[in-house]
Structures are given as structure tokens and as C-alpha cells.
Input
Amino acid sequence: MKIKTAFIVFLIFPTALFAGAGWTGVAQDIEAALKDALKSYELGDSEKAMEEVADAYFGIFEAEDANMEIAVRQSLSLKRATSLERAFTGVRKMMHEKAPLKEVKEKTLDLAAEIEKAADELNRKGITTGHRR
Output
């Protein structure tokens, strides 16, 4: 009996781990892209930094293979999706206006934290993604 139970847990547990990691992987990719943007901004290349934020938004957050924006809107709330979208826009605007690095960094890291929270919530709700790492 113990062997059967262990076998069943072995079969189920990796699946649960993969399902839980789906949105976490998307959030990690977005965070990495945002940190790259911060590095560019810190080096004085605000144009490149703004492009990198746009890439994080369009290329990851709204990417066809996962589309976190749609998942957030449908499974969490329209308000939450709109808030995240506005945060991406806010970071780009700050970079365009050449705001102090400290302020841009704070706003960018806040955005990454909010993305991570949304990913955790989507994982807990069992919302799946086709995102491949």
C-alpha cells in the first residue's frame, strides 16, 4: 500500500510543481527584462532602457505563448490588469523624462513585485500557461 501511495504522489507532485512554476517563470522572465532595462538606464541609455521595458511588456507580459495580461484580466480582475499595464507605462515615462535612477529603480522593482504576486495568484488558482522556459 505504501508503494502505491508513493507512486501516486510521485506522479502527481511533478505535475503540480510544473503547473505552479508556469506563471512564476513568466514573472521571472519579466523581472530579468526589467532589471536589464534598469542596467541600461543606469548606464545612461534611456532609449535602450525604454525599449527593454516595452519588450518586457509586449514580448513577455502580452506574449502569445502565455499572455499574462489576459490571464490576469480574466482570472484576477480587469482593474489588476490595467494597473499592471499602467505600471509598465509609468516606468517607460519616467525613463523618457530622465527621472532620478533611485525613483526609476523603486518603480521598476515595485512592478516586478506586483507581477510576481499576480503570478503566484494565477498559480494558486490553477490557471495554466503555455509558456516554456
